[in-house]
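Deliverable D2.4 — example input (structure tokens):
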């Protein structure tokens, strides 16, 4: 996992830039020219710019359910709650109604993040003061305890999609600070680091080809080619990336692991990860291809520090499978060049 920590901060910034188009806004341009000591500084700087942008655009609102006792009938009367609270003694009833409010989960996460960051000694005093100064804009938002489980309940739509980048970065920074401060074992920290960067890596790869090429870019689910239409309990085949051009289709699966190849015993010969190879082979064989369509697969690994790295092309049952590794430590112009060269092997 040493490699993960050694990915240049500038390259993580570029990955974020592709994964989230928001970073192309004028307000963020200064970030691309600054130098950061660590990724925490990068995330904090992004939030220091991004949260004020959200505030200027107006905090999103949503309908939330409110329960209260009142002498005015509004919404629905809750008879059971009225009896339990003995509200009728005071000539009141329990009512339940919807209120259009800023007190929604997205704003609660941002407020909780601001509170956490304003007290953290892992970021500069200047940043702490800046985050503390943003809290008055969230006075109508309830305080919640910051917990990674909060993000599991986040749902986006056309009205709140502008929050996605900032809320994701809130999580990236919180995780980074949380595992720095906790007594979690080094192994667990490495696993969490891998998971976080794996998600960003997948988003970056997809967005890169969407922006930099003229291929048809998508990430569809592949349906199982069953004989009797019975698909109960079959796992979902969700692709990371599918590139198409001139009746050629390349199914790409992005892989970000601490180990790209495996050996049965220490010092033994390294082999491809069988699970990954079976996965991409299954994708190819279940893809519903047109009669003249040529289909291939690619396992696109992030390069590790291991001596042996995937760099192979297989011909299996009439289909090509490319297994390659991308060095995220090199200059970003070389990363772009490598990515384009990898897929051009198939399309040209």
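Example output (designed residues):
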């Amino acid at each position: 996992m040493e490699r993960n920590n050694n990915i240049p901060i500038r390259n993580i910034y570029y990955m974020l830039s592709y994964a989230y188009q928001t970073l192309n806004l004028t307000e963020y341009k200064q970030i691309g020219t600054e130098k950061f000591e660590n990724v925490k500084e990068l995330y904090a700087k992004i939030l220091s710019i991004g949260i004020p942008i959200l505030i200027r655009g107006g905090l999103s609102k949503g309908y939330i359910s409110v329960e209260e006792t009142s002498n005015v009938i509004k919404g629905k009367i809750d008879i059971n709650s009225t009896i339990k609270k003995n509200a009728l003694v005071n000539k009141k009833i329990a009512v339940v109604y919807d209120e259009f409010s800023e007190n929604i989960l997205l704003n609660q996460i941002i407020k909780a993040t601001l509170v956490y960051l304003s007290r953290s000694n892992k970021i500069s005093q200047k940043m702490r003061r800046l985050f503390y100064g943003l809290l008055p804009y969230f006075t109508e938002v309830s305080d919640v305890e910051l917990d990674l489980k909060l993000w599991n309940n986040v749902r986006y739509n056309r009205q709140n999609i502008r929050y996605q980048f900032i809320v994701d970065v809130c999580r990236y920074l919180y995780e980074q600070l949380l595992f720095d401060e906790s007594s979690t074992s080094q192994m667990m920290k490495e696993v969490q680091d891998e998971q976080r960067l794996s998600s960003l890596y997948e988003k970056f790869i997809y967005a890169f080809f969407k922006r930099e090429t003229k291929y048809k870019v998508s990430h569809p689910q592949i349906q199982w080619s069953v004989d009797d239409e019975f698909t109960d309990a079959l796992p979902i085949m969700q692709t990371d990336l599918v590139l198409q051009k001139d009746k050629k289709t390349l199914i790409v699966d992005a892989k970000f692991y601490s180990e790209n190849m495996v050996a049965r015993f220490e010092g033994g010969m390294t082999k491809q990860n069988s699970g990954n190879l079976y996965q991409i082979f299954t994708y190819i064989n279940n893809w519903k291809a047109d009669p003249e369509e040529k289909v291939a697969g690619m396992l696109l690994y992030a390069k590790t520090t291991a001596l042996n790295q995937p760099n192979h092309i297989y011909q299996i049952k009439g289909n090509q499978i490319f297994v390659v590794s991308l060095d995220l430590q090199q200059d970003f112009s070389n990363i772009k060049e490598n990515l384009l060269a990898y897929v051009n092997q198939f399309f040209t």
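Confidence is low (pLDDT under 50) at residues 183-188.
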